[in-house]
């Protein structure tokens, strides 16, 4: 998210901060349009799986079926020339791994011989089909013999444990053998192999297609589609009139007099309509659902049967589990981990885990605030430093959503907090929205301009002079 570094004047605040271009002429092939059984569709709003069109944004294919990667994971297993795919619900792909055809949460679970096991401790590993605590046990030999670990210096030497500080374990012609180190001995064996941890360096190559060559004096080209009217604005493959129409991700809609339209994905809606809610580009009619208390988690509208964990980078939906809490976008087992300011730490003695260090920290979603909170006094500022009992901000603006005004506050602005661990992870130099001790992320928008526009549009009846869409 791009924010502003200093509160200068309202005009400066409302200047664009790197808005992403939508379907610039010649920059994106066919403007995100594809075909499914001769039906043309926008890939932001539908997906084609097994020659069947599924009209919903944010979906991906898992074999012949469609699923939402934010709330489910697709696992595939190949048998000869056949690939079998299965969907695990309630666990997004960003925090999961596959164990055969089932997905699991690596933070709290482990996959041992294609079977998902609960981790007995934060530092767990598999010993055959059994999950063990690495701090307490060793897994030795090809038969996976589990031995009690007497100290952290113990490792396996064949089927037996040995202390790396006092003994040597060397490869011989008949196998391995251990011997006592002499006082001057710095290394054990005449030669050794360094067993490094495996790693994968992944990179992505980017590319751009060159635009079509044409004479701008004779017409306008929009995503490879030529229009015989010059000096026009593009909206997807079409030209449009910004004063009379609104362009939403390459789809144009007529503006309606006295109705404040804004975009939600490819659709336009009245931002003041309390029966309509936009979740990351997906529009929901709350009156047809029958529950105005449902909240957004990414593009998904969810209720109390699930929990949404959010950090600065993402929002993820999980199925509710006992003794689990949010730490940023992770949903952690409180018997294995403790959370402080968005950072997880292993609990070394799970059975002695005191309740007073079981914390939950996450950034709240600005989009989920009701008007009573959103339209009161909010603040936006750059976080400078943090201590156990206070957070220092600079360049703080006081936002009054109901009357659409902004007031600069003196620097530094010191915010008192009672428990640092219950606050989310905050990064010095970044800008945050906050109200009292609650901190908010605006997952819907890409810039501070859009966030301010969202607050004023929702709250103010006189907000008409800023017509940013």
Report on the architecture of this protein.
By secondary structure, this protein is mostly beta strands. It is 5% helix and 42% strand. The chain contains 4 helices and 45 strands. The strands form 20 sheets. Strands 39, 40, 41, 42, 43, 44 and 45 form a 7-stranded mixed beta sheet that branches. A hairpin with a 2-residue loop joins strand 9 (96-99) and strand 10. The longest helix has 12 residues, at 448-459. It is globular and about 85 Å long. The protein starts with 9 loop residues before the first helix and ends in a 10-residue tail after the last helix. Mean pLDDT is 81; it is low at 1-29, 191-213, 352-356 and 463-469.
Features:
single chain, 469 residues, mainly beta, seven-stranded mixed β-sheet, two-stranded antiparallel sheet, 4 helices, 45 strands, disordered C terminus
Global Rg: 28 Å
- How many beta strands in the DSSP annotation? 45
Percent of residues in beta strands?
35-45%
Termini gap: 17 Å
Helix amount, in percent?
Answer: under 10%
* Average pLDDT metric: 81
User: How does the major sheet shape up?
Assistant: 7 strands, mixed
> Ranges with pLDDT <50 over ≥5 residues?
1-29, 191-213, 352-356, 463-469
Structural class from helices and strands?
Answer: mainly beta
Overall geometry comes to globular
Q: Give me the number of helical elements.
A: 4
Quick structural gist:
The chain is built from four helices and 45 strands. It is mainly β.
SSE layout and pairings?
Elements: H1 10-13, E1 33-36, E2 39-42, E3 47-49, E4 52-54, E5 60-62, E6 65-67, E7 72-79, E8 82-89, E9 96-99, E10 102-105, E11 109-112, E12 115-118, E13 124-127, E14 130-133, E15 137-140, E16 145-148, E17 154-157, E18 160-163, E19 167-172, E20 175-180, E21 220-222, E22 225-227, E23 233-235, E24 238-240, E25 245-248, E26 251-254, E27 261-264, E28 267-270, E29 276-279, E30 282-285, H2 286-289, E31 295-297, E32 300-302, E33 306-310, E34 315-319, E35 324-327, E36 330-333, E37 337-340, E38 343-346, E39 364-365, H3 371-374, E40 377-386, E41 390-400, E42 405-408, E43 413-416, E44 431-435, E45 438-441, H4 448-459
Parallel strand pairs: 39-45
Antiparallel strand pairs: 1-2, 3-4, 5-6, 7-8, 9-10, 11-12, 13-14, 15-16, 17-18, 19-20, 21-22, 23-24, 25-26, 27-28, 29-30, 31-32, 33-34, 35-36, 37-38, 40-41, 40-44, 41-42, 41-43, 44-45
């Amino acid at each position: 998210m791009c924010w502003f570094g200093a509160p200068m004047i309202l005009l400066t605040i409302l200047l664009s901060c790197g808005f992403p271009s939508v379907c610039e002429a010649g920059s994106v092939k066919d403007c995100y349009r594809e075909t499914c059984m001769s039906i043309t569709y926008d890939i932001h709003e539908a997906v084609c799986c097994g020659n069947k069109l599924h009209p919903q944004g944010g979906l991906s294919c898992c074999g012949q079926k469609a699923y939402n990667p934010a709330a489910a994971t697709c696992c595939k297993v190949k048998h000869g020339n056949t690939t079998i795919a299965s969907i695990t619900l309630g666990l997004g792909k960003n925090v999961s791994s596959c164990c055969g055809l089932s997905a699991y949460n690596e933070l709290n679970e482990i996959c041992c011989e294609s079977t998902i096991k609960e981790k007995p401790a934060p530092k767990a590993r598999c010993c055959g089909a059994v999950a063990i605590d690495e701090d307490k046990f060793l897994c030795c030999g090809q038969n996976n013999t589990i031995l009690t670990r007497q100290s952290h210096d113990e490792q396996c030497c064949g089927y037996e444990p040995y202390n790396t500080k006092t003994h040597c374990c060397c490869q011989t012609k008949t196998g391995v053998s251990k011997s006592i180190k002499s006082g001057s001995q710095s290394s054990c064996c005449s030669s050794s192999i360094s067993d490094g941890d495996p790693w994968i360096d992944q990179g992505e190559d980017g590319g751009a297609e060159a635009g079509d060559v044409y004479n701008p004096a004779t017409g306008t080209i929009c995503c490879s589609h030529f229009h015989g009217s010059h000096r026009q604005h593009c909206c997807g493959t079409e030209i449009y009139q910004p004063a009379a129409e609104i362009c939403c991700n390459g789809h144009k809609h007529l503006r309606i007099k006295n109705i404040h339209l804004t975009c939600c994905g490819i659709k336009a809606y009245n931002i003041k309509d309390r029966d309509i809610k936009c979740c990351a580009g997906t529009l929901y009619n709350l009156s047809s659902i029958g529950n105005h208390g449902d909240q957004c988690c990414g593009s998904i509208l969810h209720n109390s049967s699930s929990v949404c964990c959010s950090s600065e980078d993402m929002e993820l939906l999980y199925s509710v589990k006992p003794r689990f809490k949010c730490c940023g976008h992770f949903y952690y087992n409180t018997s294995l981990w403790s959370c402080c300011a968005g950072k997880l730490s292993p609990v070394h003695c799970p059975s002695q885990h005191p309740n007073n260090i079981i914390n939950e920290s996450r950034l709240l979603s600005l989009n989920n605030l009701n008007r009573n909170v959103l339209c009161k006094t909010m603040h936006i500022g750059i976080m400078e430093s943090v201590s156990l009992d206070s957070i220092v901000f600079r360049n703080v603006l006081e936002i009054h959503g109901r009357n659409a005004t902004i007031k600069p506050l003196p620097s530094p602005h010191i915010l008192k907090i009672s428990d640092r661990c219950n606050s989310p992870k905050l990064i010095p130099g970044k800008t945050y929205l906050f109200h009292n001790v609650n901190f908010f992320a605006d997952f819907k928008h890409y810039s501070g301009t859009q966030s301010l526009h969202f607050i004023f549009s929702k709250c103010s009846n006189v907000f008409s002079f800023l017509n940013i869409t």
